[in-house]
Design a protein that fits this description.
The chain is an alpha/beta fold. It has 6 helices and 13 strands. It has helices at about 70-80, 115, 150-165, 165-170, 195-210, 225-235; strands at about 20, 30-35, 40-45, 50-55, 60-65, 90-95, 100-105, 120, 130, 175-180, 185-190, 215-220, 240. β8 and β9 form a beta hairpin. The two termini are about 30 Å apart. The mean pLDDT is about 90.
């Protein structure tokens, strides 16, 4: 499993899918440090960069991100914020790291975007995530299928994460999220905040037409209300955390 799995699997995109750039940025940066012996050495730390999202030339939000898959991050962010109903509402996403911007062009605009983005909740996500509108809006209308995860499958997915070569292992300071079918890891994403990682997975699911009914979502971070709600919006019935769950998440 490597990051190439995030790219569209079909050789040519249908015209109704959004056109995406492939503007992956370097995930780590080398810095000079002084060790405990007073010697200078070089270590690698995760990159963190601002990505300002413009929707139809209107500034929407600035995301602090690792920059691994910025187009999928923006795509999933718009879906999880309920600003677009599907990926087919978006014509293109263009990321330019020279100006730290993502330009989103929709097919028909976003109805009532001013009203829908007027209310913002700052969440407990790393780096302070945010959601537009009421945090619990539409949650009661979400219906998830009955699902179960066996003990063997749970051990299997945890072991798959353990064996995965990650930015965390080489540089630390990032969160990882993954989508599984049983013990099979379908996609793995790291970012400076777990809310970015889950949005990127949501973007991947939307682009590939992957349903969540038979999937399990895993995160190295805690399951707050934001993470649980986003998982539910993605149709994923099982969530697994290495760190635990908050009262509102429960």
């Amino acid at each position: 499993m490597n990051d190439s799995t995030l790219a569209p699997s079909h050789p040519s995109q249908p015209l109704d899918l959004p056109r995406l750039t492939q503007a992956q940025a370097p995930l780590t940066q080398a810095v000079d440090v002084i060790n405990e012996r007073g010697e200078t050495e070089q270590v690698h730390i995760p990159a963190e960069r601002a990505l300002t999202v413009y929707v139809d030339r209107r500034e929407l939000v600035t995301l602090m991100t690792l920059g691994a898959h910025p187009e999928l991050l923006v795509l999933g962010y718009l879906r999880n914020q309920r600003l677009v109903d599907s990926v087919f509402d978006i014509e293109s996403i263009t990321v330019d790291w020279e100006v730290n911007a993502a330009a989103v062009r929709t097919r028909h605009g976003i109805a009532r975007i001013e009203q829908r983005t007027a209310s913002k909740v700052v969440t407990t996500g790393c780096g302070q995530g945010s959601v537009f509108g009421g945090l619990m809006d539409e949650v009661d209308r979400i219906e998830l299928p009955q699902a179960q995860l066996t003990q063997a499958q749970l051990y299997g997915l945890v072991n798959a994460i353990r064996l995965k070569e990650t930015t965390y292992k080489s540089a630390g300071s990032v969160h990882g999220c993954a989508l599984f079918r049983g013990e099979d890891m379908l996609v793995f994403v790291e970012d400076v905040g777990r809310h970015n990682a889950i949005d990127t997975i949501a973007g991947w699911m939307g682009l590939h037409g992957v349903a969540g009914a038979d999937k399990t979502f895993y995160t190295t971070g805690r399951l707050t209300s934001e993470m649980v709600i986003k998982s539910a919006q993605m149709g994923v019935p099982i969530v697994v955390s290495r760190s635990g769950i908050t009262q509102m998440g429960h």
